[in-house]
Amino acid sequence: MSYETNMRFKLSVLAIGLQTLIIILFGIFVRYETPHNADPQTNTTLRDDTFIDLYPLFQDVHVMIFVGFGFLMTFLKRYGFSSVGINLLIAALGLQWGTLMQGLWHLHDGKIEINILKMINADFSTATVLISFGAVLGKTSPVQMLIMAILEITVFAGNEHLVGFLGASDVGASMTIHAFGAYFGLAAAAVLYRPSLKDGHVNEGSVYHSDLFAMIGTLFLWMFWPSFNSAIAEHGPPQQMAIINTYFSLAACVLTAYAFSSLLEHNGKLDMVHIQNATLAGGVAVGTCADMNIGPFGAMTIGFIAGIVSTLGFKFLTPIVASKLKIQDTCGVHNLHGLPGILGGTAGVAAAALGAKPGCSPIMQGAALAATFGIAVVGGVLTGFILKLPIWGQPPDPNCYDDSIYWEVPLDEEEPENNYHNEHGKVKIEA
Amino acid sequence: MSYETNMRFKLSVLAIGLQTLIIILFGIFVRYETPHNADPQTNTTLRDDTFIDLYPLFQDVHVMIFVGFGFLMTFLKRYGFSSVGINLLIAALGLQWGTLMQGLWHLHDGKIEINILKMINADFSTATVLISFGAVLGKTSPVQMLIMAILEITVFAGNEHLVGFLGASDVGASMTIHAFGAYFGLAAAAVLYRPSLKDGHVNEGSVYHSDLFAMIGTLFLWMFWPSFNSAIAEHGPPQQMAIINTYFSLAACVLTAYAFSSLLEHNGKLDMVHIQNATLAGGVAVGTCADMNIGPFGAMTIGFIAGIVSTLGFKFLTPIVASKLKIQDTCGVHNLHGLPGILGGTAGVAAAALGAKPGCSPIMQGAALAATFGIAVVGGVLTGFILKLPIWGQPPDPNCYDDSIYWEVPLDEEEPENNYHNEHGKVKIEA
Amino acid sequence: MSYETNMRFKLSVLAIGLQTLIIILFGIFVRYETPHNADPQTNTTLRDDTFIDLYPLFQDVHVMIFVGFGFLMTFLKRYGFSSVGINLLIAALGLQWGTLMQGLWHLHDGKIEINILKMINADFSTATVLISFGAVLGKTSPVQMLIMAILEITVFAGNEHLVGFLGASDVGASMTIHAFGAYFGLAAAAVLYRPSLKDGHVNEGSVYHSDLFAMIGTLFLWMFWPSFNSAIAEHGPPQQMAIINTYFSLAACVLTAYAFSSLLEHNGKLDMVHIQNATLAGGVAVGTCADMNIGPFGAMTIGFIAGIVSTLGFKFLTPIVASKLKIQDTCGVHNLHGLPGILGGTAGVAAAALGAKPGCSPIMQGAALAATFGIAVVGGVLTGFILKLPIWGQPPDPNCYDDSIYWEVPLDEEEPENNYHNEHGKVKIEA
C-alpha cells in the first residue's frame, strides 16, 4: 500500500482547526475558580491553600507526562524526535480537550471552573493517549495521533464518570488510566496490524545512547509516581498513605524486576527493556488501592508481584500477543500498563473486600474494572478503524520507526545511518 | 584577526577576583531575613509559611535556569560542554551579582535581607544574561560571558527598578527579562558581527542526539514556565491565575508551532528548531498579563498567536536580520524571547486598557516596554564594544561553535570528528 | 584470576531473598504514622501540614538520589547502563533497608512509624552506598553492590545514631553521609585493589555524549542540594538558613572550581571531570553548619574553599592515592565527598566554637567527625574483605568498566565499538 505522507496541509489545518475550536469552547464554557465565583459556603482560605499545596504534586505529574512518557519512548534508535516531540503535541492538545471533556460532567452554573484539581485531571487524561501511543509507536502519523487524542479522551472521560457513578475507588487510576489506555491502544493496534512487520523491522531496536535517554523517562516516572497516585487523594492520612504505599511498592518492584530480568536470560544478563519498564509496574499496580489502609507490607507485596508479572509479560507474552493475536505492541504497554493495571484493579477488589477503605464495595470495584476493560476495547477498535482510513499520512511499512519521514533530521546523523547501511545492507527509502 | 585563546590566567584571575569581591560585599551588606530582623509589624508566621510555600516554585525556576537554558543550547553538535557548562558559570555568578544589584534598590537598615523572593529574583536576573548568551553562543569566550553577566545584570536591575517606578506590571517579565535579554544580546551580537561567518560555519548545526539533549531543556522550560510567571505574583487568585494562564497559553502555543512548522516546509516535515523554541513562546508572551484577569480564553489566544509569530520569525526573519542588520543570532533568541516579549508587553497594554488588573495604566505599560527596549539596546551596544576588545580570549572564526578551544574534549569523540572530516573535507584548526 | 560472571541465579536469588525478608520484617515492624497511632499529645494538624510541606523537599532529594547520583556516573563511555541502572537497584533496596535500620533506633510501641521524615532519611541512607559505589564503579558486580548496600547501611545507621547520641549537629550530613560514604568506599576499594589496572584501562574514559549525560546528574544534584541540606532541619529560620546557605555556598564553589580547573591546565582549558564534580563540593562542605547562623558570607567562604580543595584533589591527590595508597577511586569520591566532607565537619567544629548554633559543642562536633571517619574505614575494610570472596560474579580485569558483562547491550552500538577497535587495536573480551 502506498500513502501520501506529506503532512503539510493535513497537520496544519487539523491542528489549527482543533485549537481554534477549543479556544472558542473555552471562551464559552471555561473560567477560573476564584473566591468570587466559588461557592460562598466554602472556606476560601482553604481553597487558596489547596491550590498552592497541591501545585508541587501537579508539577510532578506534569514532568511525568512530558518528560517521563516522552523520554521513555526514545529507546528506539531512529525515533527519538517523534517519541518526545509527538508526545508533547498529543499532551498539549489532550490537556485542553481533557479539561473540556472532564469538565462537562461537572459544570457549575454551566461553566467549567479551573482549579488545581482540574489541571491535574487534565494532565491525567492525556496519560491514556500517551499509553496508547506506546502501543502504536512508530506506525502512525502525527495526524493520526491528534485524532486518537480527541477520540480516546472523550471516551476516557465518559468511562471515568461511569466508574465514579458506580462508587468505585481508583485514586491512582490503575483501571481508568493504565488498563484503559493499554487496552484502548492494543485494540487500535490490532486493527492497524501490519503483516509485513511481523518479523521485525531494521529500525525497531535501540542504540546505546538511546537506551540512556529512555532511562531519563523511566526515572522521572519512577520518582514522581507517588505524586501521581496521591495528587487527587483526600487531604490528610489518605494522601499520605497513597504516597507511602507507592514509594514502597515501587521499591519492591525494582528488586523483582531485576531478579527476573537476570533469571530469564540464560547468561544472566539484565535486559534494558525490563529495567526501563517493569520497574514501574509497582506504581501502576498499587494505584487503585494506594489511598487504602493496606499497610506498607501490603503495598510492597503488590509491587513484588507486579515486577514479576511485568517482566514475565515482556519475555513470554509479548511474542504470543504479536503472533497469535496479531497485536504489535511497540513499547510493550500490555506489560507495563495492561497487566499491572488489571492486577491493580483486582487488588482493589480484594482490598475493598478486606475493608481497607470505608464505603468501598468489592462488587462495584469489579464492575468498574470490567466496564473499563470493555469500553476501552470497543473504543480502541472503533478508533482503529477510523485511523485505518488511508488519508491520515501514515508511514509505509519500510518507513516505520523512522523520524525522517515526518521530521527534518540532521544530515550528519552518522551513527544511525551507518547502522542502517552497514549492518542491514538496505537503502533507506525516502518519503 | 588572531586571538590569544589560552584562558589560563584570564579566567582564573577574573573568576576568583569577582568571587572575592562578592564575598566581601556580602559580608558588608547581606544578611538573612529572619523574624529577628524583620519588621516587627509583619506577621512572622506568615513569613515562615511564605518561604516554604514558595520554595517549590523557586526550585522550578532554578531548574529552568540551569537545566532548561543549559540544555536548550546543547543542540549544536560540538558545543554541548560550553552550552551547559558556561550556562552554569554565568548563572552561578549572576545570581550572586543579581542579589547585590537588585538588593541595593531595596535596602533595609542599609542591609540586603535574603528571603525566598530575593532568591527567585536573583535567579530571574541571570535569565537575562542566559538569553543574551543564546544570541552570541559559540562566538564568545567564558571570560567575555563573565563580563557580560556583570554588566547586563547591573543594567537589568536598574531597568527593572524603573519599570516598577513607572507603576507598570510585568509579573512574568515578558518585558524586563525576555525582551530585555533578547535585545541586549542582539545589540551586542551586532557589534560583535563576524563577516566571515555570514555563510554559516561547519559546526553550526546539530546531530541527532544533540537535538534530543536540547529537548531536555525545552521540556523543563515548558513544564515549569507556570512557576516562572507566578513565582512573584501576589498570593491567592493572582498567583493562581498566573499559573492557569501560563498553562493554557503554552498548550495552545504548541499546536500552532507544530502547525506552522509543518506548513512552512514544502514537504510538510517538522523542524526541530521550531519545536525546541517556538513551543515556548506562549510562556514568554503571556508573562506580562499572567496575573491579570484575561481568562483562560485570553491566555490561549495569546499563546496561539505567539506560536505563529515565533515560527514565522525563525523561518523568515532570522535570515533577514542576519543579512540586512548584520546580527548573527545563534539560537534565534529574537524569535523566542524578542518578538514574543514585545507581544507580551503589547498584550499587557491591551489588558490594562481593558481593566484586567486594577490600577494598571496602559500608558505606563507602554512606557515600560519602550524604556526596556531602549535601555536594552543601548546597554547591549556598549557591552558589545567592551567585549570587542581583543583581549578576552574570544575564539577565531574557524574555532567558533567548538568546545575544544576552551575544554578538554575526549579524544575518542568519534561522531563529530567523522562529520567534520568526511562531510566537509576540512581539517580541524587547533587552538 | 578467573571469575564466573554469570549472575543468573546469584542475582535473582539474592534479590528475591532480600526482598522477601524485608517484606516480612515490614509486616512485623512497620506501619503508617497517622493521627490514630500518633502520640495523642501531638498536634495532629501540624503533622498533616508537615508531611505535605516537606514532600517537595523529599522529592528533590529523591531526584538527587536516582537521577543525580545515577547520571553523574554515566560519564564512562561504556558503563552508562550500570551507572544509572545499578544505582537504581542499590537505592531501591537501600531505602527499604534504611527504613528498617534507622527505624530500629526509634521504635514507637515496638513499631517503625512511617512519615515524611522517615522517607527522607531512608533516601539519605542510600546516598552513602551510592557514594561508595562511585569509588568502586566499574570493578564490582551487581551482586557485590547489593551486599555492600546491606552492610554499609547497617553500619551507617549505627554511626548516625552515635553522632546523635554525642549531641553533634550534622543537618546536611557532611560527616555522616559524605565523609562516611567516601571513606567507607575508599577503604573497600583499597581491599579490592586490582594491580593490573594501575596504568588505566581502555574503557576508563568518557566520550562526548557520555559527558553530557553526566551533566544531567551534576545539575540535578547542584540545583536540589539546598533541599538535601534543609529537609530535616527545624521548621522556620533554621530550615530557611539551610536553604540560603547552601544556595550561596554552591554558587561561590562554581566560580572557584572553574577558576582552578582552567588554572591547573597549562593551556587553560576546562576539564569536565572538575566541572561535573568540584562544582558540587560547596554543597557537601556547607552541610554540617547549613542550619547554623554562619551568615551568607560564611556560607560563601566555605563554598569558595571547597571548590578549590576539590579541584586540587582531582588534579594532584587522586594520582597519589592511586599509586601510593593503592586505592583506585573511579569517580574521585575522595575529592567530591571525602575532603569536602571533612572540610564540612571541621567548619562545624569552628562554627560551634563561634556559637553559631545554640547548644552545639565543638568538642562533640570533632568527636563525631573522628568517630565517623574511624567507623567508615573499619566498616569499609571489613566489607571489602567480604566482597573480595571470588564468588560474587565480579568482572575480570579486562571486562571492567564494561556494561556488556552484566547487560544485554545493543549490537549496533557503533560508537564505542569503533573506539575500542580503531583506537586501541584490541579485541573485546567477551564474558
Automatic annotation (TrEMBL), chains A, B, C:
It comes from the Eukaryota. Residues 22-404 form the Ammonium transporter AmtB-like domain. The chain crosses the membrane at residues 12-32, 52-76, 88-107, 119-138, 145-167, 173-193, 205-224, 244-264, 297-317, 337-356, 368-387. Belongs to the ammonium transporter (TC 2.A.49) family. Rh subfamily. SUPFAM superfamilies: Ammonium transporter (SSF111352). This is Ammonium transporter Rh type A. Keywords: Ammonia transport, Glycoprotein, Membrane, Transmembrane, Transmembrane helix, Transport. GO terms for cellular component: plasma membrane. It is a multi-pass membrane protein. GO terms for molecular function: ammonium channel activity. Homodimer. Heterotrimer; a RHCE monomer interacts with a RHAG homodimer. Component of the ankyrin-1 complex in the erythrocyte, composed of ANK1, RHCE, RHAG, SLC4A1, EPB42, GYPA, GYPB and AQP1. Interacts with GYPB (via the N-terminal); this interaction bridges the (RHAG)2(RHCE) heterotrimer with the SLC4A1 Band 3 I dimer complexed with GYPA. Signal peptide: none annotated. It is found in: Membrane. PANTHER family: AMMONIUM TRANSPORTER, AMMONIUM TRANSPORTER RH TYPE A. InterPro entries: Ammonium/urea_transptr, NH4_transpt_AmtB-like_dom, RhesusRHD. It catalyses: CO2(out) = CO2(in); NH4(+)(in) = NH4(+)(out); methylamine(out) = methylamine(in). Its main location: membrane. One of its GO terms (biological process) is ammonium homeostasis.
